[in-house]
Amino acid sequence: MSAATPAPAPAPHARFLVAVLAFCGVVVAVMQTLVVPLLPHIPQLTGATPTAASWLVTVTLLTGAVCTPVLGRVGDMYGKRRVLLASLGVLVAGSVLCAISSQIAVLIAGRALQGAALAVVPLGISIMRDELPPVRVLPSIGLMSSTLGIGAAIGLPVAALVVEHYDWHTMFWASAGLGLLDLVLVLLVVPESPVRSRGRFDAPGALGLSAALVSLLLAVTQGGSWGWTSVRTLGLLVLAVLIGLVWGAYELRTTSPMVDLRVSSKPAVLLTNIAALLIGFAFYANSLSTAQMVQEPKSTGYGLGASIVVSGLCLLPGGLSMVALSPVSARISAKYGPKTALALAAAILAAGYVVRFFTSHHLWTIILGATVVSAGTAIAYSALPALVMRAVPVTETGAANGLNTLMRSVGQAFCSAVVAAVLANVTFRAAGRTAPTLHAYLLVFLIAAGAALLALAVTLCLPRQRPAATGSVGRDRARATTAGVRPGRQEGA
What we know:
Elements: H1 12-33, H2 42-46, H3 50-78, H4 80-100, H5 104-116, H6 120-131, H7 134-165, H8 170-189, H9 203-226, H10 231-253, H11 261-264, H12 267-295, H13 308-313, H14 316-336, H15 338-358, H16 363-391, H17 397-425, E1 427-430, E2 433-436, H18 438-460, H19 472-482
Helix pairs in contact: 1-6, 1-7, 1-8, 3-4, 3-5, 3-6, 3-9, 3-17, 4-5, 4-6, 4-8, 6-7, 6-17, 7-14, 7-16, 9-10, 9-17, 12-15, 12-16, 12-17, 12-18, 14-15, 14-16, 15-16, 15-18, 16-17, 17-18
């Protein structure tokens, strides 16, 4: 009687692939937050108005929202590695533009190119699904998804250190260098997935989606400065709705849609995307409020008067917790299902804001509350792509994950608008200046906790799915082969 054959160890290819793709995700996430500590100084450094300076953040949000689902679909059709390389090339170009100029128009153009690289994350998730052995898929996509939070937590303190001690162009040269390193690593390690979806690219659908998103996000991000009842804000919101309705009707009739609304309207996909929006909202409130709160002067009665660097470092433990908890979330998803993992994550997020509500007077308790919120975010960001991939065909992974990442970005945009409105309107005079009251921050925490509880309610409404099985990815590949699509690489490929 022959001895049982031991299970093969993970191939070195798989380890390198995950490490390279996760590094790409972290670099892209760092790019999204890189300019935040610099914003107060931009008018002095460039001669731009504060309104123009705010576009350094707004434009990345717009281009990221537009390019993420579009490039995810392009990757499904023409090659995920090819589109990944193009996205990283755009990031490098945008970084170089920002590094060589102090003109606000050039900086905005560079930031627009950097924002387009957000598509790297859903593309990386799709490549992992195609290339990795089934047993490694869940933990790997969990890590890849969490890089958005990890990079944000790392990017803020690093950027603050650069702003405080070096010429501000240095951080853009550094980002260009990291982008080039990503390009080389992808060329060396990441293979091109043979999994393809058939059909032609839906250019009208891409243009319609882009127009609707730009109209919506412009209204949301600029509504505070334009006025929420102004003609521009209301006009853009109405335009977004009208374009969205026309676009939806077109997508339902075309044979190769940009977004398959029939798949996206299934409860398993629709509710997951709604939960992603709410989780994005709840997560971003933590980043927006923490840095500003600890920097408030002591004359406010609650502020700690901390430096930019210290305020950024407050988020670093949360970033480290996200790295540590990504594999934990994958184990929860594998054993109990990603629905259970997402419900647990939403509950932890709400609990984190309860901690923040009652302990906002000392630096260490602020860090503790922020870290609890980050822990919930890590579990959520790992569970969301697992839920998406259970509900969509293997040939639509890139587009579906791109849409899910987009929903998180939309949630963050709404959060930014809400937090800005609360902190700008619930104020008092302290030491000759207007500052948000402590109650303004506490109200932000309550709103974020409410968003997390809504995410929990939405998650509990998700349809019951069968427990995860290590063969599920293999079955997906078999279905893709039956449909006339070449299967992805098997273990050790």
